[in-house]
Amino acid sequence: MLKGKNKFAAIALALAMTCGASAQRKVSAPAPCGPVPNANQLRWHKLETYAFLHYSLNTYTDQEWGFGDEDTNLFNPSDLDARQWARTCKEAGMKGIILTAKHHCGFCLWPSKYTEFSVKNAPWKNGKGDVVRELADACKEYGLKFAVYLSPWDRNHPEYGRPEYVTYFRNQLEELLTQYGEMFEVWFDGANGGTGYYGGANEARKIDGATYYDWPKTFEMIHKWQPKLAIWGDRAELRWIGTEKGYAGLTNWCTIDYAFNMPQDTLMHGQENGKHWSPGECDTSIRPGWFYHDNEDSKVKSVRKLVDTYYESVGRNASLLLNFPITREGRIHPIDSAHAVAMARVIKAELKDNLATKASIKASQVRGGSAEYNAKKAIDNSTETYWATNDGVTRASLTLNFKRPTDINRFMAQEYIALGQRVKSFSLEALVNGKWVQLRDQRAPEGKTGLTTIGYKRIVCFPTVKATSLRFTINSAKACPLISNIGVYCAPALPEDAVQLPASVLAKANEKLPEPEPVTLALGEDGPKAVDIDLQEARVYHSLTYVPKEGTKDGLVLNYEIYASDDLVTWKRWLGGEFSNIENNPVAQTVKLPAIKTRYLKLVATRLLKGDKMAWQQIIVR
């Protein structure tokens, strides 16, 4: 029998051994669930917002898509300032910039050794300039990531559509990805094949977009040159969200099954059981067009619209790629700059004070009862820690208790996506005057809460309530939920003076030149593919604006011809062209008319997107 000191020593030893054994029984981390992001994708997720800069010969021809036969002498900006681009994007909260190094016309903003159709044959800087270099250096100076857009379709190159062009395309990729420093993304437009100059052939060429570029091999080469970038494009590491309006679906999975030309709905929402991690990127322009057009100076998105776009993209598990068209002088327009900077300030103000960090928090269940996975990990502002439940527990909740009744109108949640996206649906309840009130996303359809997926980040906006507690419940998940962060905020009202611009800038943007009343054709359709317009009097007209019919792709005009007549008998062709990118960006399309006096105009649709009757919301002749 143990007595005295020996007895107490034995007890102490037993306790020490027990504690040691407990410490050794560390709670295991959750297993991955489904596809998971690679290191490049994880870095990309954290960027959230970055800028697109569209600049090319299109800037000087007032077009969206160049034909490939443009004169390189047109490229001669008087005040190109890449540092102004970078400074503006930095102040607008952007984390990086993607530049259209080559758009569909084939003109290169760097002195490529593989073509003469580049800045080296432009008068700008006597052919010694390099826009890509200037912006890469400016991004480095301002602490921004840098990336390039390289159009696979080249309407200038004589070999487009043949195997030789793919070699040319890859050679240009190598130039861009090996000479301008580290890049975070490379962007491949989905527009491929069609009419073009093609070295003088002036013809239409079609390709099999699924096989022509041999993307698997091309992607392998890209990662050899740039191991840390993510690829945006067809069946790539990052996906298009299915629209150019800047929003993702309320339900948005980062996973998808690769397929060529995926349906818009699939791109918008992803697929719950998709086999590949390919998160969505929301690309949209701050103006109606992607390239600069001075008639859009008064059509820049409002600050409220830009803020809403942020919540509907970044706040829905996607990224926001916001485009700034570079002006003919070579700068970001001051109106665009002011609106974007104001957007950043508003978002910062709305999400400035995380009220969750000032509340007590309690979880309905904690994985293994471990402090490593407890509720506090969801409010420690770290993306490397998370609250987790036991395996098999897919319904659980976190409850925040405020010290006093608190106004709230924003909720943010993040999953620990390194182990996969899991949450399928959740709910939010606020304790108001002693009663639990269910909250819903104010942008959700009537009768729906809109609270489904979370992913990297989900932000829910709702009308202000004064709550003493907030309960966040995971209702359904593919595996035990892993919540990295939650935030609760009270966003102030948008200030009326969010944008302040010099009077001279506003006056110029809204300047109205004296002109007769325009002739307008209201909503309609005509068959099969033409409409005659009686202008009521013979005089000189300067422009025709085609406004696509809302809510449908039937009857959208892709290619057109415009004819003039004085008697409805003899018609003279004035010009023809295409309404570029109208499928993805169905906004008003304005055509400048030659200064010829006429009484009648005929708009002929030589190619429709869908259907056999031309349709319009309005046709306006000025």
What does this structure look like?
The structure is a single chain. The protein is of the alpha+beta class and 622 residues long. It has 3 domains: 39-240 and 284-350, Alpha-Beta Barrel (TIM Barrel), CATH 3.20.20.80; 355-489, Sandwich (Jelly Rolls); 519-621, Sandwich (Jelly Rolls). It contains 11 helices and 29 strands. It has an 8-stranded parallel β-sheet, with helices on both faces. A hairpin with a 2-residue loop joins strand 16 (423-432) and strand 17 (435-439). Helix 4 (82-91) crosses helix 5, helix 6 (163-179) runs parallel beside helix 7 and helix 9 (303-313) crosses helix 10 (334-350). The termini are far apart. Mean pLDDT is 90; it is low at 1-5, 8-24 and 509-516.
End-to-end distance = 110 Å
Strand order of the largest sheet: 7-4-3-2-1-12-11-8
In total, how many domains does the architecture comprise? 3
* Helix share bin: 10-25%
CATH superfamily of the largest domain: Glycosidases
CATH topology title of the largest domain: TIM Barrel
Q: Quick one: how many beta strands? A: 29
Keywords: Glycosidase, Hydrolase, Signal
GO molecular function, one term: alpha-L-fucosidase activity
Domain F5/8 type C: 344-491
Pfam family, one: F5_F8_type_C
